[in-house]
Amino acid sequence: MPYFFTGFNISYMKYRIYIDETGNPDLESSDNPLHRYLGLTGIIVDLEIARYTLAQRVDEIKRKYFSIEFDEPIIFHRKEIIQKKPPFNVLTDPETEKNFNRDLLALLSELDYKVITVVLDKFEHKQKYKVWRHHPYHRCLEVLLERFVMFLETNYATGDVLAESRGGKEDGKLKESFIRLVNNGTDYVNADRFTQVLTSGQLKVKPKAANVAALQLADLIAHPSRQEILQIHRNLSYSPEKFGNEIIKILNQSKYDRSADGRIDGFGRKFLP
Q: Would you say the pTM of this structure is higher than 0.85?
């Protein structure tokens, strides 16, 4: 039975990594250029900040710009915000959109958190591992969690993991994969290292409708981060909206996790295979 660390001889800091995906995780879609790349973005936040500061500031922005029904919370979702679908149709007013973007970018800049994004080229993954291969989502999760463990070790802290729900059967498979990963370790992080810093051997899963503020921030960050990685490693040009460009600047200035000597690639940004 694995022993999960409870805080002895380690700092009292406890973090949670909130995970959001960008792209199609289905391996069979890897031949389609539009669905070739899968990204997982994790936002690492101190639990006290996530529970109080982050949740409060996100709610303040929502109340400032949108009409909120008691039993219908507003959920920040990047695609709906960009397309200005209700309730975000108030952003069709240029001044309102300008002020909303300013407040949201200020939150992303001022909040204390770290970001790790892992992007997988599913086509190359499929070609490289012809006999045995990870499911694309599970492969990205493995690499993401290796880096989360390293972050916790570096900061003498503990933590746990919460991912956005992918649906009933998929959630079940993901939880099973997480348990195997923690109990068996990986080629680079053995099981003892996982159990020394993780406070739970179970993966937490929440749907978007649960209105988890940190998951909503992960959703806003995930797409620009993935596209930047594809620019770097695949020279794929794209024209992100101004808001996305500003997010990339913030990530590179201070939010990507990085090595002791300041390197982001391989730490806050990772491209596979």
A: yes
